[in-house]
Amino acid sequence: MALRRSIKTQFGVLTVTEEAGAITRLSWGDALRQDSSDLLEDAVRQLAGFDTGALTEFTLPLRVEGSDFLVAVCDAIFAIPFGETRTYGDIAKELNAPAQAVGQACGQNPIPVIIPCHRVMGAKGLTGYSGAGGVETKIALLRHEGAAGLLI
């Protein structure tokens, strides 16, 4: 059974989903969910810390459900340090895959913010964002982190 807990942040209302002891989804929305578990409480605490700038690295059990390639792309994205960016091409080279496939997988990331796909840029700079608010949310997240190389 999936449990969900929401938190209001400067980036909107974020809702985390827990299934079988792991975070499996993060979504935006106005409907506040208040399910409770130790993991959800920890996730909300960590998201609040990220929101205030006190936390720069999430330490939650995550489970990305999808293809092996999606999992590999999400793992590569998760490894990008706070305040840094990579390009789709950088990740493509690391995974020996086409940059376009990396971009598509990045857009399918089920746990944005925690798996920081906002830190992935196009070869020429800023690209779209599949989170609520689109590219404006991506810019806000990157500014929040003081991301070097932010081209806007």
List the SSEs and their pairings.
Layout: E1 3-9, E2 12-19, E3 22-28, H1 38-52, H2 68-78, E4 86-87, H3 88-95, H4 99-107, E5 120-121, H5 135-145
Parallel strand pairs: 4-5
Antiparallel strand pairs: 1-2, 2-3
Helix pairs in contact: 3-4
EC number: 2.1.1.63
Enzyme class: transferase
Protein name: methylated-DNA--[protein]-cysteine S-methyltransferase
Task: List descriptors.
single chain; 152 residues; alpha+beta; Arc Repressor Mutant, subunit A; two-stranded parallel sheet; MethylDNA_cys_MeTrfase_AS; methyltransferase; methylated-DNA--[protein]-cysteine S-methyltransferase
Largest sheet: 3 strands, antiparallel
Low-confidence residue ranges: none
Query: How much strand?
Result: 15-25%
Work out the helix count: 5
Through-space gap between termini: 42 Å
Q: Compute the number of strand runs.
A: 5
Write up this protein.
The chain is an alpha+beta fold and 152 residues long. The protein has two domains: 3-52, no CATH class; 68-150, Orthogonal Bundle (Arc Repressor Mutant, subunit A), CATH 1.10.10.10. Helices cover 36% and strands 17% of the residues. It has five helices and five strands. A three-stranded antiparallel sheet has the order 1-2-3, with helices on one face. Helix 3 packs across helix 4 (99-107). It starts with a strand and ends in a 7-residue tail after the last helix. The model has no long low-confidence stretch (mean pLDDT 91).
